[in-house]
Amino acid sequence: MKRVIAARLAENAGLAPEIFRMVLRLPEGEMPARAGQFVNVYLEDGAHLLPRPISVCRQEGNALTLVYRVIGAGTRRMAHLQPGAEVRISSPLGNGYTLPERGHVLLAGGGVGVPPLVQAAYEAKAKGLHVTAALGYRDALFLQREFADACDALAIATEDGSAGFHGNVVQLLMAQALPEDTAVLACGPKPMLRALQAFCAARKLPLQVSLEERMGCGYGACVGCVCKLLRNGAIVQKRVCKDGPVFDGSEVVFE
Ligand SMILES: Cc1cc2nc3c(=O)[nH]c(=O)nc-3n(C[C@H](O)[C@H](O)[C@H](O)COP(=O)(O)OP(=O)(O)OC[C@H]3O[C@@H](n4cnc5c(N)ncnc54)[C@H](O)[C@@H]3O)c2cc1C
Ligand code: FES
Q1: pLDDT of residue 39
Q2: Positive or negative, the Cα torsion across 200, 204, 205, 211?
Q3: Which pLDDT score is estimated for 45?
């Protein structure tokens, strides 16, 4: 059930050009978020009535970290908030990733699809899984230290070739041998997820993808965020905010 929480902004600083990290102090006793869940950020300005969905990057105790790219008016307004400000957010929403019981986990992220995989990396490590991250950036890197801490192996790709592999994440993975028991958890732009779907299908690897759709209400009431799945030969529609945002990557119809 959706609840609105009044959180206190502890930190809001740039990590890379147009990329910010926001740390919010939650009231005591809030339930921890799971990797892959998101919160709706409600901006107080009446001109921005729709909530901005942002994935949970990390939750440690009552410190909730969100990492976001400035895209338009809403995220620009978020970037101007000062420490000490009250920020209204929803309680964590959506289903989140399901970690396997054993074996290898590959976290594949691109751009602002990288942040939700931080929480996944720490949860997978705590479960004793072997964790590899493959992260793709346009140019400037962010959050590598967190992945280096939580993962057994980390590979970076940049589109401009300024660090790591020169190319995208899927091209990077093509050059690597993956254990047969690898579960792939992914978040990133649609072209990356589509290519990863083909990559995983060819290698018979299970894939979970976190999808982004423009949202209205952000909690299941308006059907403004539907995506299509191909399930048992039939197309079914699901709401990204309520039924997702994480879906079985083999079922998603990328249009
Ligand atoms: C489940 C989920 C998790 C997300 N997690 C992150 C994250 O961790 N970090 C991050 O940088 N971004 C994330 N996004 C994208 C983020 O929500 C948008 O970039 C943001 O809402 C843009 O708002 P704006 O007002 O700056 O842009 P504008 O383009 O002015 O937004 C106009 C409207 O469209 C909506 N909108 C625009 N782009 C998107 C988008 N890509 N997805 C959904 N709604 C959009 C806005 O919420 C707003 O209602 C996530 C989106 C979803 C659906
Ligand atoms: S945004 Fe309203 S149902 Fe998903």
Answers
A1: 95
A2: positive
A3: 62
Cα 69 to middle of ligand 2, angstroms:
21
Rg (CA), the chain: 18
Burial 185-224 (b: 16+ CB within 10 A, else e): bbbbeeebbbbbbebbeeeebebbbbbbeebebbbeeeee
In 3D, which of 24, 9, 181, 174 has the Cα closest to residue 108? 174
Return the CATH number of the domain spanning residue range 4-90: 2.40.30.10
Of 91, 107, 129, 253, give the one whose Cα is nearest residue 187.
107
Mutate to test the pocket of ligand 2, among 40, 217, 238, 243 (most ligand atoms within 8 A of CB): 217
Query: Which atom of ligand 1 lies closest to the CA of 69?
Result: 11
Does the pTM surpass 0.85? The reply is: yes
Q: Which atom of ligand 2 is nearest to the CA of 240?
A: 4
Q: pLDDT at position 26, please?
A: 96
CA of 93 to the centre of ligand 2 (A): 11
Distance (Å) from CA 53 to ligand 1 centroid: 6
Q: For residue 54, how far is its CA from the centre of ligand 1 (angstroms)?
A: 7
Asked if 4-90 and 104-210 have one fold, the answer is: no
Q: Determine the Cα–Cα distance for residues 44 and 89; give it in Å rounded to an integer.
A: 11
104-210: CATH topology is: Rossmann fold (3.40.50)
Listed as ranges, residues in the chain with pLDDT below 50 are: none
